[in-house]
Amino acid sequence: MSENIFNEKADYLIKAKEEVVKRDEMAAELDKMKAYQKKLSKNIASEEKSIADEIAVTIKKRKQEISATYDGRLDDNRARKKKVENKRGKKKNQRMNARIEDETKHIRQNNRELEVELKTLLKKNKVPSYCSSKLYFLMFNPRGMAEIFGMFISMLIYLAGVPVLVAFLVNKFLLEDKKDINTAFWVVLTVAIVVVLQLVIYFAIFNATKVKHADVLKQARSIKDKMKANDKQADAIKHSINKDKDESAYNLDAYDEKLANLEDEADSISDEKKEALKVFEDETKQAIIDEINGRRLQTLEDMKAEKKALDEKITKGEKKYSEKVLQITNQYASFIGEDMCKEDKLNDLIAIMADEQAETVAEAINVYKGQKSSK
Fold first, then answer.
1. Does a structural domain hold residue 181?
2. Claim: this prediction has a pTM higher than 0.70
3. Are 190 and 170 in contact (CB under 8 A)?
4. I need a labelling partner for 157 at 20 to 30 A (CA). Which of 225, 298, 321, 323 fits?
5. Which residues contact 232 (CB under 8 A, 6 or more apart)?
């Protein structure tokens, strides 16, 4: 049978060419459809992601808007609450201070009377008025550990701090530019002189007051002690009032009522926020999904339907292509060779026979191969 085929005329090659052309066209069409199939798959994936992203972004935005609305109301509630708390605090302090003023009124009155008594005592006995000052009693007539410690600090400043300061000023403004003198000697001398002068002044005051008016200053000390005791009593009352947790005496009910109302309002807003977010999750969220899907899913479904139809078309095309390849293999390639089952080569073989260079297929193939080998 193969000999008969090789003895075929040009019609055999023309039919072979027609089948090869069909095969190549089918292959080209399949490549085209597969390229579009790939593009369509990417478009479907992109559209699915776009829809999912729009749903996610929209849900997040709407949820944030709900939270922001209620958070704004809570912020306003907190601001109003803070104003009421500030007003309440000021009013409490005012009424607390008034209470302290009232409960220590007799003590302060007694201190004013003792102050007058002290000044009268000193004036009557011709004692200098500065003898009624806290500094005088601290320096010349201290009593108790606190005043003794205060006297020690005061004397340290008086007998050390002041002389050193004077010596520093003397050195800076009088001795610094004089290079031919013993600066250290003059500084030490200055300190010594100042200390001596201070001691002279201290003991002069001591003799003129403490020694000369001992009995009077003893009475003055007693009056001062009473005033000091009164101050301690007033401080104790003030401390007790400040520590007292019972605020009923300050008449703050109106403020407390406002604060309670604001607390209730804040709780109500928080509950409303929870309910709004719950409704959003249970109902609104799905409504958003349905709205976006309703608006965009049709396009996606159309693309999927188009791809499905294309998939089926490609499957059928691949089957037909495979059948065509088998047909060409069985009818032509198995006899003239797979390499000769090309459109251009078949054209060459047909041209050889048309030019009467060969009468049969076998002769045309031999002429073609001879031409190729000679080239």
1. yes
2. no
3. yes
4. 225
5. none
Print burial letters for 96-111: b (CB count within 10 Å at least 16), e (below 16): beebbeeebeebeeeb
Nearest to 33 by CA among 309, 226, 220, 270: 309
In a domain, 335, yes or no: no
Domain contains 190: yes
Instruction: Give the position of tokens 């797979």.
Output: 338
Q: Which residues contact 290 (CB under 8 A, 6 or more apart)?
A: none
Q: How far apart are CA 279 and CA 272, in angstroms?
A: 10
The kind and range of the H/E element at 235 are helix 214-243
What's the rounded mean pLDDT across residues 316-325? Answer: 95
Kindly compute the dihedral angle of the four CA atoms of residues 179, 180, 184, 185, in this order, to the nearest 10 degrees.
-150
In tens, the pLDDT along 156-186 reads 888 888 888 888 888 877 777 777 777 788 8
Total domains, the chain: 1
How do residues 94-126 score in pLDDT, each as one tens digit?
Answer: 999 999 999 999 999 999 999 999 999 999 999
Q: Is residue 104 part of a domain?
A: no
